[in-house]
Amino acid sequence: MVGCSFYKLAGQKLRLFLIVILAQPTKLSGRRKEAEMAATKKPSEATVVSPQFFETRSSDINWTLRVKESGGKTHEFVGADWEAVSRFGEVRNVVVFGLDGKPSFDRPEYREAPNVNMVAWGIKDGIAHIAILHEARPHADNPVNPSSKNPMVFGQIPMGFLNKLLGQDRKFEPGANGAVREIVEETGATAVISVRQSLFPWHNPNPTFVATWSELYFVQVDLDKIEALKPSHGEMIYKAEYIPVAELMERIRKGQHKGALYRAATTLSILMIFFATYPQYFPKLKRHRRRRRSNK
After folding, report:
1. Which of the four pLDDT bands, split at 50, 70 and 90, describes residue 143?
2. pLDDT tens digits, residue range 227-262?
3. Which of 68, 82, 187, 256 could form a Cys-Cys staple with 131, CB 3.0–4.6 A?
4. Within 13 A of 106's CA, how many CA atoms are on the CB side?
5. β-strands 127-137, 152-156 pairing
6. What is the pLDDT of residue 9?
């Protein structure tokens, strides 16, 4: 499907000319009957099937929710239906059922609000360049110095939550609109050439506990029309740059570059999808041969 439209940025006298090319999403195939598949249910629903499910398991296996009051008193909950919610998502305890229809184990389940992950890219001198943000992620521990309290900075692709439509609590802006908005805000791009989705345009960062999926977009921009990044109080983005794919591969090989780590799972897996979609832009990497010491 090919179409053209204009996007007007709020607060800026700027129009972005878009050529939107969206691949038809592939339907899920090979689906098994619902009765044959494992599922997650609330702990209260699990105890209806197996009343002693939590009591018969070792206390260190069950997930325990500990809530500490300001006065210091701690409350513990095992096998309770609990959840922590915000407009960005929710975390709740669920029980995983096996193929036999019986509860197997419990584990917190994370659900994100509708969001998009993007590869922003462009062509310069015949070479593909990809946008990389240098963004702090305070939740990540330091693998080299676990006692460090300094936030870890990652080299990653743009991503963000979709905006809700005014007056409609459960409806959000189209994914393509959100992808363009985020790329303009986070990378300084002012002219978008095309927006494309892969054949299966969704991404799950970790299906072992994340239930929801992110929409996936590849957005080609005009690299001659990039503005300087404007600081945002809501983001911890220190730098945005469009780098040649060969240099990006070298940074990934080394794992870090000038204080930024290239080990963010979502970024690495989506870059693989990008190169699977655009194999012509995957760089020819030089082989690093070890020098053999001569015994002579």
Report:
1. very high
2. 987 666 567 888 899 999 999 999 999 999 999 999
3. 187
4. 28
5. antiparallel
6. 44
Torsion angle of the four alpha carbons 180, 182, 185, 191, in this order, in degrees rounded to the nearest 10: -20
Over residues 78-134, the pLDDT tens digits come to 999 999 999 999 999 999 999 889 999 999 999 999 999 999 999 999 999 999 999
Per the DSSP assignment, residues forming a β-bridge with 9 are none
* 3-state SS track over the chain: CEEEEEEECCCCCCEEEEEEECCCCCCCCCCCCHHHCCEEECHHHHHHHCCCCCCCCCCCCCCEEEEECCCCCEEEEECCCCEEEECCEEEEEEEEECCCCCEEEEEEEEEECCEEEEEEEEEECCEEEEEEEEEEECCCCCCCCCCCCCCEEEEECCEEECCECCCCCCCECCHHHHHHHHHHHHHCECCEEEEECCCCCEECCCCCCECCCEEEEEEEECCCCECCCCCCCCCCEEEEEEEEHHHHHHHHHHCEECCEECCCHHHHHHHHHHHHHCHHHCCCCCCCCCCCCCCC
Bridge partner residues of 172 (DSSP): 164
pTM: 0.83
* List of domains in the chain: 2-26+114-281 (3.90.79.10), 37-111 (no CATH)
